Amino acid sequence: MSTLAIDIRMIGSGGIGSFISALLPHFISHYEKCLLIGSNKQAQDFILNPKVEFLECEIKTFSLKEMLFFPKGMLKKINSYDAYFTPYCNIPNGIKIPVYSTIHDIVFLDVDGLTGRLGRLARKIIYQRAINKSKEIFTVSNFSKERIQKKLKCKKALTVIYNSVPSYLSDMLNSTVEKTQKEDIILFVGNIKKHKGLSTLLKAFSLAKEKGLKSKLVIVGNKDNFRTGDEEVAAYFNKNNDNLIEFTGKISNDELKKLYEKSRVLVQPSLYEGFGMPPLEAMVCGTPAIISNIPVFKEIYGDFPVTFFHVQDFSDLAEKLIQNVEFDKETARKLASRYSYKNSAKTIMDAISKV
């Protein structure tokens, strides 16, 4: 196949946006022509490339218009290409060419309490719809692959394409990059959902302080947003006004990069992940990671010098927070060698070329 239509509407929206942004240069280099479907802003870095055609589309992902009433003119343009790739599991109705979609994880089906019964049902329908409409499905770990196969009884081809170092951190792999002076900061990067394990970290941090820990805990995010997330987290901040805990609010990639560089350690206390990017991002910036011993972290990071603690065991985590965790910069290069968007793009393109 020589042409590929690509949904880029999630560029700018977190991890999936970074995922498709990193894959795009490889697709554009490989195919004779690529159709980018999204907004002018999302396509701005690629739109002047002579191999790129742009289709402006402001229709929201997972909207009824996308799933039932996608414009015929847009469909005609999309269907003139050889195949269609989406970085998530949203697929406009009416696409006739082979579809390749991505299910990063099924956390809302696997973890209780993240959504109500109707929310779980809606997500299950969306996942199943993607499976039914796709020639092949991609996911980001063997753990996610096993859960999708079991929970959704997926019989379609399901291929693992690992996440990798986002582009805004790629310069950190250059050995000539000047090292930032470390500060006594414990860093948490994640959302407010219960499966991210922030309540475990807060309990561990309090216990470690009782044992002499002097570090500051920096949480990337806005404190007000945590009121609507994990109930244990909300209860903690209602009871405590800890001047050693700092919320960054919304920050840019450059600001996050600086935080990764200067932090003493990153903690990822997740109960569940499809891949889990922050430990990879931190280690690329020369910062060690303390992470929960959940299966996917064992799969992704088990061969690297991370420090594991027993998931949800705040006493174990407190002991690890007190320890001085060392880190070898060579690990960053080994991580980038194993987890490469170039390799992931090749896997996708090889799958498409089989049709």
Describe the structure concisely.
By secondary structure, the chain is of the alpha/beta class. Helix content is 40%, strand content 15%. The protein starts with a strand and ends with a helix.
Could you characterize what this model shows?
This protein has a seven-stranded parallel beta sheet with strand order 3-2-1-4-5-6-7, sandwiched between helices. A six-stranded parallel beta sheet has the order 10-9-8-11-12-13, with helices on both faces. The protein has 15 helices and 13 strands. The chain has 355 residues and is α/β, with parallel strands linked by helices. The termini are close together. α9 (231-239) links the parallel β9 (216-220) and β10 (245-247). The protein is 40% helix and 15% strand. The chain has helices at residues 14-30, 40-43, 64-68, 72-78, 107-110, 117-133, 142-151, 198-210, 231-239, 253-262, 278-284, 295-301, 314-322, 330-338, 341-353; strands at residues 3-7, 33-38, 52-56, 83-85, 99-102, 136-139, 158-160, 185-189, 216-220, 245-247, 265-268, 289-292, 307-309. α1 crosses α15 and α8 crosses α13 (314-322).
